[in-house]
Amino acid sequence: MQTPFDLSDPYRVGSVALSPADSNQSQREKLARIVLDSMYQFVGLLDADGRTLEINRAALDGAGLRMADIHGKPFWEARWFQVSRDTVELLRNFVHRARDGEFVRYDVEIYGQAAGEKTIMVDFSLLPVRDARGKVVFLLAEGRNITAKKHAEAEIARKNAELESLLERIRQLDQVKSDLFANVSHELRTPLTLILGPLEELLAPDAAPLTGAQREQLELMQRSAFTLLKHVNDLLDLAKLDARRMDLHYARIDLAALVRDQAERFHALAPQHGLRYVISAPEALPAVLDPEKTERILQNLLSNAFKFTPPGGRVRCAVQRIGRERCLFEVQDSGPGVPRDMRQAIFDRFRQAQAGTTRDFGGTGLGLAIAKEFTELMHGTITVTPATGGGSIFQVELPLAPPHDAPMVPIDPIDGPAPRRHAPSPPPIAGTLAELARPERNAAPVEAAAPAGMARILVVEDDAGTRRFICDSLRAEFAVEAAADGQAALEAAIASPPDLLVTDLMLPRLGGDRLVQALRAHAELKEIPVLVLSAKDDAALRARLLAGAVQDYVTKPFSAHELRARVRNLATMKRARDELRQELLSQSSDLTQLARQLIDSRRALRASERRWRSIYQHSPVGIALVGVGGAIQAANPAFKTMVGYSDEEIEARTLPRITPIEDRAAAQRRIDGLLTSTARENHMQCRFQHKEGALVWVNTSVSLVRSAPGDEGLLVVVAEDITEQKRAEQALVRTRAELAQVSRVSSLGELAASIAHEVNQPLAAIVANGQAGMRWLDAHPPNQEETRTAMGRIIRDANRAGEIVSRIRGFVQRRETRHAPMDINDAIRDVLELVGGEAQARRVEIVHSAPRPLPPVNADRIQLQQVLLNLVMNSLEAMGQGGPHTIVLSAAPCADNCVQVSVRDSGPGVDPTVDATLFEAFQTTKADGMGMGLAISRSIVESLGGRLWFTPNDGPGVTFSFALPAEAPEAPR
Amino acid sequence: MSAPDALVHVVDDDLSMREAVSSLLRSVGLRIETYVSAAEFLERWVQPSRHPECLVLDVRMPGLGGLELQRQLGQAQQRLPIVFITAHGDIPMTVRAMKAGAVEFLPKPFREQDLLEAIEASLARSRDALRDHEGMRALQARFDSLTPREQDVLQLLAQGLRNKQTAYRLGITEVTVKVHRHNIMEKTQASSVAALMGMLERLRHAGPR
Lengths: 973, 209
Fold this sequence. Notes:
Strand order of the largest sheet of chain A: 4-3-7-6-5
Order of helices and strands of chain B: EHEHEHEHEHHHHH
CATH class of the largest domain in chain B: Alpha Beta
Shape of chain B: elongated
Strand content of chain B: 5-15%
Mean pLDDT of chain B: 85
Strand order of the largest sheet of chain B: 2-1-3-4-5
Low-confidence stretches of chain A: 412-424, 441-446
CATH architecture of the largest domain in chain B: 3-Layer(aba) Sandwich
Structural class of chain A: alpha+beta
Oligomer: heterodimer
Number of domains of chain B: 2
């Protein structure tokens, strides 16, 4: 047979070489080999005992085996089955069974991948191959890789199991729910009844009187209880519906009357909501319907209309017959309307037109669902369509009569619907109306001005009653502001950031979580802690909020106590953090880190304070802190010792008190100057008065320190006791004065002889005149004229002697210096008088040269005389004996508005080697003498602002000069 | 003690003193002249005078001092005795003044009596000095009236030469000598040769005029 493929050339496939020369038989065998080796599946042939005869390439590669490894060996010992002992046994078992003629097929896990490293699942089969006689001679082993399929199967099985269990759970839950709702109605209704009953009694007109606040609170409680009751009723109704236990009770009614009756109950709400309300019904409209349910449908529709219509809008309620067998209710509002895609879904349970937490309108979302259920129960239809001009029209179409087999309840159309079968409980409409109530008192939250220092809380809650409740709970401890929706809250927070935000999640305009997000986006608001109040018990939402933006989460109902506690904690923490951040100038918002920073800075501060304290305590200089009124607030030990007061005593004192009386005015001026002027400090020598009365001289520095601008400030007085110094100074001044006086006396002593001469002259003349006078009187005749003249001369000479004495006395007197403007020439003349006799005795002529008038010099006359005398005496004594000498005393104005006096002699001059020391104390070239003259002269001249020097003459002798500043000449008038 | 022709010179630079002393001395009838300084006195003093004078002199004065003036006056102090008055007196000064011939050295203030007595003593001395001076002048006149030859004879006689020797020395006769001797005795009014010798001695003592 010729192959259908081309074999013109020899070629090789695997280990098989095909050649045109092959015979048909060998070609078919080679092809069979190619098939075997190319197969994906595992294939092998065993002998009847299970020894491996032939295996294909795939099987070998899968386990990483070579033919030689396994040929002729038991099949079950091969690598594939080394997965476990059990597998090996299993295979051996298979082989035996197959040998016995059974076709064995099992799924087995073997090492069949990655050269025997990985396992796979195979669909393993072992087929006995019989010979012509029917004896099993070979076993054909096959393995199909079903790993992937197995996985998929396992997955499916698992998922099925899951689904099964979920389904089971749902069934169970559903059942539980229905049971719960149904069985628990009693449990829910009873407490509410027990709330509402007593409330009604408390609020009854004939009950005990209540205060306005009490009444408000009780009415709030009543409304809340009604609302709660309504919600409970709605839920229970739904549960009943689900459990198919909702019964219809048909009765003959006047539908028009029913509609009017129900609709009119909403009348009071219209002005509260700012709406126009129109009711349109025919005179009468007999029908057979379940009155309760019909009322409920109407209530729910009207409730929605009132809820969703904004102020200024319009609600219309109408009923009419359609045809002969149907009636139509319509409730129209001018609210936002229902979007097209919601018109079906809006009747679903818990469905509200707004997703998420933004709730522009409250409600459970059950109203419409119940309306629909009830409508359909009565075989009616309910739809919503857009109204022209905006808003929606809800339309309920009902048959005027039920199907024939419906049970009926007798009803008296005048009395209204039959009484309830259950225990007396408030009608559902009470809840509906309560939910819609907008009492004016709750219209705007009162914002009393809170005292500064209280933490400010912003409360966001749309329900007026709840908002009021929260605000009232917090008002005692905090400054509370309230907002009724998220947007208003955001604006309020931006305008005036509060310390804490307490917010509901479900809010109109901007839901709670979106509000928090918006807050966090503002830099100055992102640190504000947020406490979320919510009835929504969503654990995922709660976790998300707490992890991210919100600090605490409280579910309603909560106690006021708990709320206050949590708010307090958060507000306190925030304030603490704010204070710390401000104090530490830190950016951190981590309270722990801030606390650590605070501790560190406090430690550093304490250490620093200890150092300063030590300085303060141990300073030898007195330091006192004085309030601006003069009260001594603190003083260090040195200060207290200085003024002799103890701790308690010093703090009762004021600065004026420790100042001597005569200095107080000046001290006060000084303090005032510091307080008012820009000078910040003031250094002065002044005196304090010791407790025991002694005066203490101090060098004080007073400065005004303010810890902050606008702060009143504190005076810091640093006082150094210089009493000893002052005493020494004063003693020195006294000593100098004494020395000057002694020097004067000494100078005068040197002139004693000539002074005596001076005085003796007039005295002798007086004696002679007296004697002469006597003789003139004894003459014959007595010569009165001569006598008189003699008397006159006596008086004159006596005065002259007196002048000399007083001049001398003045010169030697111990007295204080008196400065006055004077002409130096006068002093020169005085000195010439004193020294004249002496000069004569030494045959020295003293010339007084004063060619020009001298400006006055401000000096003490005696001091100037002392200087001049000293200089002239020095010159006189220097010139000694030998021939007539001349001293020239000249006085003239000199440059820079001063007066210069020169004493020029013609003596031996001054030895240049004694130059420098000449003016020093105790320096003298005289044989006897203290050597103080020039030193004192110089100190006097310098104290008058002048200077004293000498210059050798061109000729013999030296000239001593001194210059003194002159008084400024008087301004011409 | 009024001696109308006596004159007291008062030299003191101090006006009060001058006036006081002047008043005092006038009150006892003395004539006074006052001088401000020694220089003024030397300038104005007229000599010789025929009446007794004395000087009341301060020691300490500007310019020429009292003691200086005393030295300058020297011999004239006989006829112008000095009474020193001074406000400043010490022992050395006193001794010097007295040694130099002062009559008295009085400290100021002085007792009037002391001053007046001293002035009286001074004037007496001055009078004496004047008289002596007169006597001497007369004597001198007599001797001056001798001719030259008579003076020669007198001179030899004074040496103790006898007449014969004198005549031989002069180349004249002894007789002539005797005549000259007789004239000398008459002109000089000497009572004896011894008296004549005495007069000669006195003249010689007085010193040159």
